[in-house]
Design a protein that fits this description.
Length: 169
């Protein structure tokens, strides 16, 4: 798989991804950097062009083979100080998952997740564009930077929550 993203600051991006991927870029040129990962197989390049950076396109992610692999990557990312959110036992994309998120210098969100099983429930925060339209707190919006190591369970402590089949969303 190959992905190419526009970025506003090639140095900040290269530094972030060297930390996140735990390897140096395979190619760096003026306004350009490329990383080639073997496991998982990914070639990702970055082109510095601040005018073409797009927000809210969605997110990118890696599925790992075991909960232990996800937890090991989470521990490494915590030591590097790049974890923006942890979600354990969440219902996302109609699947029960354990995951964590990192966010690059231009706001591109990455999830590293372990898939437990399919689910008939999808957390409403993943299904709607405007988090205020339902039961999730405003702090759940992807445009709001998360404090490191904040857990999903912290988001709605004083807010009502949706139950599967409740019709609130």
């Amino acid at each position: 798989m190959h992905v190419s993203l526009y970025v506003s600051d090639i140095k900040a991006t290269t530094d972030f991804y060297a930390t996140f991927f735990n390897q140096k870029a395979s190619k760096i040129k003026q306004g350009y950097a490329k990383f080639e990962l073997e496991a998982p197989g990914l070639i990702i390049s970055f082109v510095e062009n601040a005018e073409r950076v797009q927000s809210n396109f969605g997110h990118l992610g890696f599925q790992v083979e075991s909960k232990e692999a996800m937890l090991a990557q989470l521990e490494t990312a915590k030591k590097q100080g790049i974890v923006s959110l942890e979600e354990m036992g969440t219902a996302c994309c109609y699947a029960i998952q354990d995951k964590f998120w990192v966010t690059d210098p231009d706001g591109v969100q990455w999830e590293i997740y372990y898939f437990h099983e399919d689910s008939e429930f999808n957390d409403p925060q993943y299904a709607i564009a405007d988090a205020s339209a339902c039961c999730t707190s405003q702090t759940a919006e992807s445009t709001t930077p998360m404090k490191p190591n904040r857990k999903l369970s912290d988001l709605n402590k004083k807010e009502p929550s949706c139950e599967p089949g409740s019709g609130c969303c």
